[in-house]
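Please, structure for the following, as tokens.
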Amino acid sequence: MRCPFCRHPESRVIDSRASDDSQAIRRRRECPQCSRRFTTIETASLQVVKRSGAIEPFSREKIIAGVGKACQGRPVGEDDLALLAQQVEESIRSTGVSQIHAHDIGLTILDPLRRLDTIAYLRFASVYSNFETLEDFEEAIAVLRRDAPPTA
């Protein structure tokens, strides 16, 4: 790692710690040339392949915005959306891939969204599962009813 002060090409790691969400590593470094200390933050990059073929960095904010549209008018708060986005990112990162297609992210969102709010799930699933007829909706509703916990 190049020193940001004197541009010396080497540095020594003094301390390493995981960030609060364990998605990054904070390293405290010291330059052997000028003896100044600095901090670096290392993260594993995750790239999203868009439908057009363009590649961009993964963004939790885009998940929150997309799912937020499906949750409009539903009793789902910002904290719920942030937690869902975190779960989706952790699920994707656990696969070990460095690139994922945007459509696959949408499919990964479905299960946690289903647990969060079934109406928002249906709205979101109608796009990502390509519902084309009323029968597609009826079939999805039948599955939700079948899997729903019994009410007293």
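The chain has a mean pLDDT of 90. The first strand starts at residue 12 and ends at 18.
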